Amino acid sequence: MIEEARLHPDPDAAVQRELGHFFGVIRALYHGRFASVYLARDVESRATVALKTIVRLRFLEPGNAARFRRQAAAAARLDHPHIVSVQRHGVSPSFLWYSMDYCPGGALSTVQPMAVIECVTAVQHIANALDYAHRSGTVHADLRPSNVLRDESGLIRVSDFGILSALGGVAAVKTVQYPPGALDYIAPEQLVKDVVPGSAADQYALGVLTYEYLAGLPVFGATSAEDLVARRRTGSLPDVTAFRPDVPSPMAGAVRRALSDAPGDRFASVAEFAVALTGAAGPVVLWPAEATSDDDDAPSDDDAQRPALRPRVRRWWIMGVASALFLVAAASLWFAFSTKSRLPTGRPVIGPVPVAPPEQPSSDVTRAPAPRAPAAAAGPRPSPRPLPSAQVVVSSVPWAELYVDGRLVGNTPVVGLRLPPGRHRLRLVQLGFQPHEEVVNLAPGQTLKLTRIVLQQETAP
After folding, report:
1. What CATH number does domain 1-102 carry, 3.30.200.20, 2.30.30.40, 3.30.457.10, 1.10.1040.10?
2. Is the Cβ–Cβ distance between 299 and 427 less than 8 Å?
3. What fold, for 105-279?
4. Domain regions of the chain by residue span
5. Which of 118-122, 285-289, 330-334, 443-447 has the lowest mean pLDDT?
6. Confidence (pTM)
7. pLDDT by residue (tens digit) across 118-153?
8. What values do phi and psi take at 236, rounded to 5?
């Protein structure tokens, strides 16, 4: 077993000494074997952040600082509602470090089993984040419960993209002793020397998370890389229905496939895995539509250098009474987990339509002109106040292009989209999937969340 190298007797004092000109440390949130997380205030932006430091251990050398800089820069470019944003990153004499959004809700626990619908919602949100990162060319490679967080509004967000790879991957730390189950999320191909993990490794980790969210138990409980290999070789993959008989068979089958040893035996993407969780007869949208329509409108540097701040067809399945009850339960869960909308940088905004002043009634009676007030006494004529705009949040699995009244506004997820009150048609389009439509009637000031949309793949004629 590798022995931990101690570069300083007091890591908290070292953080204050080496990073105090960037951050004011408020308190320690977590101390691990090689990493610590602090609640801190950014000196320049005054924002409250989570500051993560990784001790520069000898066995992580050589080249980890350069890899870390590249990977942290790639993670900082990810801009997604379900991804924890990286604000700053750098290297000090004792640490590799980066600051990120603070999520006071903490990690999503795997100790207590989740309700099925709660698990599906969480996994679809995580899959949205992973799918976006994969399309951006970034693989997480270390997805685990401690990296799935809730922010101040309860929104599920994923952190620490690519950090393990920057440190040299599993090969750099595979002889370290771990708590039982800590290595269960590592895909088999990640233990092969010189193999660069792909998106299938993230799908495997998400499959393990799904199993644990449902069962409340680890899949293998391995304590080392060798122990993990032995357990996989000698033991059969446990069936989640053995612990949760209420888990639908499509969901249990999807988890088993995501946990296949060979990457090629898994789903083609994490988005496909998330779709498969609900099965062919599962609910598509867990938010009731306000109206329907058949119309079709839409077609680096020295260590001392200062790090920079990060710029900031519709289709319904015909369902019976049981499905109706399911939707009622899902709606209740939605209100319990509804989140405050945020407007991401760069999202197109449709402003409210100003209300024109009423026209004066016509009359045939000639009236004497009123005396003109002196120019100095004449004040500006008050203009009518426009009605407050509504906000719409749209998320889908997989991602799709969102059209509003025939106009493309961006790719999902779209958060905090402002629309004038009234009737609007929302249409999601993704190649290889059936279009999804919603026709909504928005009231002034309303916030409408359509966040559990699952697109269905097109079937061959």
Report:
1. 3.30.200.20
2. no
3. Transferase(Phosphotransferase); domain 1 (1.10.510)
4. 1-102, 105-279, 283-299+313-343+387-461
5. 285-289
6. 0.64
7. 898 899 899 999 999 999 999 999 899 999 999 887
8. -80, 150
